[in-house]
């Protein structure tokens, strides 16, 4: 008779039968929707009186404030587009100013060369 031996050996429980009492698994999706009204929409949750809806991978506030959450999202997106367009236009302006500076410098050089040619031809006469 061991003092610290393994005296506890529970019996193995038989595996459970997976018999469902519901026949929902036999119905196709459209029948389940008609019979049980299972229309799955976007997930919605309420936190602190604010209703949030999950649309297109983002949580969007549905209530509260003067502007709706969708309107705020749309305005943020439009603001980002306008900032990108503004940056592109600034780049174009810088490029045009560089081109104008180069053309002006070339024009001044040509005027100087023309004056030198005129002065040189006057000296020969």
From TrEMBL:
Residues 1-21 are annotated as: Disordered. Residues 1-10 have a biased composition (Polar residues). Transmembrane segments: none annotated. Residues 72-120 form a coiled coil. It holds the Pfam family Chibby. Keywords: Coiled coil. It comes from the Eukaryota. PANTHER family: LEUCINE-RICH PROTEIN. This is Protein chibby homolog 1. It comes from Oncorhynchus mykiss (Rainbow trout).
